[in-house]
Amino acid sequence: MVGAGPSGAACAYWLADAGWDVAVVEKKHFPREKTCGDGLTPRSVRQLADMGVEESLAGAHRYGGLRSVGFGRSLELTWPAHPDFPNYGYTVTRHDLDGLVAERALKAGATVLQGTEALEPILESPPDEATGEELDALPVCNGAVVREGAKTRQLRARYVVVADGANSRVGRALGLVRDRAYPQGMALRGYYRSERHDEPWIESHLDIRDANGDIVPGYGWIFPLGDGRVNVGVGLLSTDRRWRGVNTTKLMEAFVAGVGASWGLNEATCCGPPTGGRLPMGMSVGPRVGPNTVVIGDAGGLINPFNGEGIAYGYETGRFAAASLAEALNGGGADALASYEERIRDAYAEYYRVGRAFVRLVSNPAVMRACVSVGMRSEAIMNQLLRIMANLMRPDGHGAAEVGYSALVALAKVLPPGIIEGTLTR
């Protein structure tokens, strides 16, 4: 297992809990900083509860829903009652959270090698980089060359799980390619001290503007942490034509200037410079399966294209991979391992497809303005949008894809002609 973040630690836990020998290599030592919004949705909480980790979050800030802000309006939307997910979430820094899940995997029997960096995979036949074409499947990987302090050694394994994040070093060496036709996110976040640090809502601003006052595709957030701080950030989509030239630091500054008075955000309350990263979304990275290799979490582009959430999908895909690996280890071999991709597609394919269409739709600032301004006038619409964006639809009688289509059809009635046409072709 390469990486002990959400996906790697979850996969290690489920495999070790089932009695399999698991070794996880993690470059850093826990606790360690990680750029993130630090918000756990009900979908994430469900996975943490199933792993027995939720009880360790007793000191974390628990919140009840989302305050949605846009175009001068504000709506407070509680998480919906749901047969599979709780109606609450937590905010907890990755500095604290990731170590808890890794520790749970360790207690289940996994070997967690902290301060151990995976330098490169051990390949039976390296991919041909000269073609520049995406592979049909990952090559056979017999482990990884790892570095512990000044020592380098080979760590061999029967099966290898790639879970080293959005900028996957091992994944690139295996031949992973991101489909650039799919959206990518770019986010920046920082911490501020605020008297409103323990509010029961996370807050999302849907009309985020640049320094010129122009609306850009994305959103801004303020997530109370309950410890005297709030997590403040901005996210931008690659679908906007200004993507390559945008200065996210300036975008962040403009957002903080706009909301700062209300939350007490200023230079004096800033806890340090913001950090950021890019997020490959919507199943945009592949291939994710080989004869003895699987790619999970952010390394596989398995980030929700509706809202940029990655933690829940890290936990879930780690669990999916563990199930397929167990089948393979029980004698199913490569055919059983291929069931991982089937599990991914059954769980996300239609939902992510609608999400990618939605992202392209709102990449037009005029469309985004119309969508948000119409939606913000109706709490019923916004509640439904919350369910869709957080992927909390099933089993409410409709699949997420059908609900997404219905939402786009409804929008078509209020938007200029031709805007929606063709957005669902990919």
In short:
The chain is α+β, with helices and mostly antiparallel strands and 426 residues long. The protein has 10 helices and 19 strands.
Name a few traits of the molecule.
426 residues, alpha+beta, 3-stranded antiparallel beta sheet, 10 helices, 19 strands, 34% helix
Describe the SSE topology.
Blueprint: H1 6-17, E1 23-26, E2 39-40, H2 42-50, E3 61-63, E4 65-70, E5 73-78, E6 89-91, H3 94-108, E7 111-114, E8 116-123, E9 141-148, E10 151-156, E11 160-162, H4 169-174, E12 177-178, E13 184-193, E14 201-205, E15 218-224, E16 229-237, H5 248-263, E17 275-280, E18 285-286, E19 293-295, H6 311-337, H7 339-361, H8 365-375, H9 379-389, H10 400-412
Helix pairs in contact: 1-3, 1-6, 2-6, 6-7, 7-10
The helix/strand order is: HEEHEEEEHEEEEEHEEEEEHEEEHHHHH
Strand content: 15-25%
Terminus-to-terminus distance: 33 Å
* Main beta-sheet strand count, sense and barrel state: 7 strands, mixed
Q: How many distinct helices?
A: 10
Instruction: Give the class from helix and strand content and strand pairing.
Output: alpha+beta
- Rg over C-alpha atoms, rounded to the nearest angstrom: 21 Å
Number of strands: 19
Please tell me the overall pLDDT. Answer: 88
Bulk shape: globular
Helix residue percentage = 25-40%
- Numbering strands along the chain, what is their spatial order in the largest sheet? 5-4-14-15-16-13-17
Low-confidence stretches: 420-426
